[in-house]
């Protein structure tokens, strides 16, 4: 019954999402200042404006609603601090045993995903101040699985399953008043053995995942998989093995319009243009439920000598990207890149 409801629901769904994880309309973003500090920022006149800083540790994961809240979660203590940049802060202790892998906050809820032997996904409602443990389908509930990333759109919270095969994406119907309802779950296509998913990205048109696989023949292989829509039937992957002569080790990626922007250890910043023809699956890939691979030599790169791009941050409501660069001495700096007809450095940084 849930799958029938979801199919009808998906037909009526219109994406209006612009943030890396699907948040819409906010204009603030987080940057890593150093290993102990993050900042919340805005962007005006080609310049980054730092609004406020917050302490972190090596055990912290963090996020923002892109408007007024910053969340820092101490994974060692399972404690959450929600900062309101215009007022104060609240501290919460998570009332569930969980090894946290992912967090996301929107205007109504804080979501925390992870593992407690099996998958666990919890919700904290910001207004009624209640915690909920969300339903995980029995087919998905397997020892060792976890919720490794979360993305969102106007109507759905989307949880990304990880580690143990088979892997799924879980869809929850958003609401502003109480516990979210599980709407459906769908099987992900595979890129190979021992696949681990790291992050998700979502736009109006595409749903993307980064992952790694391992085999004795190819070693570790990095993948970026792009799905044409949320029914997960049409997809392709960019893949590169550590044993390839022309290796690409992906450190981050984002989606802008019909482009994939990738950061790699070896080659710097790259752009790959998505074409509709890439989503055509042959019978071979349909039968194996695997992703068809596209030629990674089509990625056009800009090299950063003696620096590694560790993270890409899309500035909300723009096509500008902030590169987080680390040099050989561990010094962090940021650079703004504009993505138009070609990649270009934005002046005033």
Describe this structure in words.
By secondary structure, the protein is mainly β. It has a domain at 1-187: YVTN repeat-like/Quinoprotein amine dehydrogenase (Methylamine Dehydrogenase, Chain H, 7 Propeller). 5% of the residues lie in helices and 52% in strands. The strands form seven sheets. It has a five-stranded mixed β-sheet with strand order 16-17-18-19-23, with no helix packed on it. β10 (118-125) and β11 (130-133) form a beta hairpin. 38% of the residues are buried. Residues 1-18 have low confidence and may be disordered.
- The average pLDDT is 86
Secondary structure tally: strands: 28
- Stretches where pLDDT is under 50 for at least 5 consecutive residues are 1-18
Gross geometry = globular
Report the C-alpha radius of gyration, rounded: 20 Å
Query: What's the CATH superfamily of the domain at 1-187, by name?
Result: YVTN repeat-like/Quinoprotein amine dehydrogenase
Structural class: mainly beta
SS field, number of helical segments: 2
Largest sheet: 5 strands, mixed
Distance between the termini: 53 Å
- State the CATH topology of the domain at 1-187: Methylamine Dehydrogenase, Chain H
According to CATH, what is the class of the domain at 1-187? Mainly Beta
Order of helices and strands: HEEEEEEEEEEEEEEEEEEEEEEHEEEEEE
Using the 3D structure, state the CATH architecture of the domain at 1-187. Answer: 7 Propeller
Strand content: over 45%
User: How much helicity do the residues have?
Assistant: under 10%
The strand order across the widest sheet is 16-17-18-19-23
